[in-house]
TrEMBL record:
<keyword id="KW-0732">Signal</keyword>
<protein>
    <recommendedName>
        <fullName>Toluene tolerance protein</fullName>
    </recommendedName>
</protein>
<dbReference type="InterPro" id="IPR008869">
    <property type="entry name" value="MlaC/ttg2D"/>
</dbReference>
<dbReference type="InterPro" id="IPR042245">
    <property type="entry name" value="Tgt2/MlaC_sf"/>
</dbReference>
<dbReference type="Pfam" id="PF05494">
    <property type="entry name" value="MlaC"/>
</dbReference>
<feature type="signal peptide">
    <location>
        <begin position="1"/>
        <end position="23"/>
    </location>
</feature>
Length: 203
């Protein structure tokens, strides 16, 4: 399974998780169902408009998806040892470029969502004082294909944030780390960041 296809499934499920506050008693499954209805409602009847106006699509992704991700920690995991070698400026620049890459590269995935997507939510089993949670679900596609999804979340300032996810055994962090580390070894971290900025940062 290609990473892009897996990330589409990741986006589908991650969009259902905003507002998972530590102090919020609402069960995650209930929150997920409420949230996905709102997101799909926001897009209902706007798909052609969003295709013609990608900036509006990017804004939607930035608003609905990015706040759910622990970008600083995910950026650190993705760069691996190169994060430790990076200067504070390089870390900030990479994090911004990485965020814009996610927004621009996978924003189009939103346009393929089915308003009536069938999602089976698995119970979240964790201690009341747990600081990490594994969220599992199965996306049932119209073609009969079932896609199991796993999201790894941890608490950041009393909010649950996604720091990794997988489709089957395909970890997003592991795959991005492999891609970026290969480019860094061929060139340099600075070269990677500059290329990402030129390609993904708003002009």
């Amino acid at each position: 399974m290609r990473l892009t296809r897996a990330f589409i499934s990741f986006v589908t499920l991650a969009l259902m998780l905003p507002g998972l506050a530590a102090a919020e008693p609402t069960p995650p499954q209930q929150l997920a169902k409420q949230t996905v209805q709102k997101v799909l409602s926001d897009m209902d009847g706007r798909r052609d408009e969003l295709r013609k106006n990608p900036q509006e699509l990017y804004q939607l992704v930035d608003r609905d998806l990015v706040p759910l991700i622990d970008l600083p920690y995910m950026s650190q995991l993705v760069l691996g040892r190169y994060w430790r070698e990076a200067t504070p400026e390089q870390r900030d620049r990479f994090q911004t470029a990485f965020k814009n890459m996610l927004i621009r590269t996978y924003g189009s995935a939103l346009l393929g969502f089915n308003d009536n997507v069938d999602i089976e939510y698995m119970p979240v089993r964790a201690a009341d004082d747990a600081e990490k949670v594994t969220f599992n679900a199965v996306i049932h596609a119209d073609n009969g294909q079932d896609t199991p999804i796993t999201l790894q979340l941890h608490l950041v300032n009393d909010q649950w944030k996604v720091f990794d996810g997988s489709v089957g055994n395909l970890s997003f962090v592991t795959n991005y780390r492999g891609q970026f580390n290969s480019q860094i070894r061929r060139n340099s971290l600075e070269k990677l960041i500059s290329q990402m900025e030129a390609r993904y940062n708003p002009k």
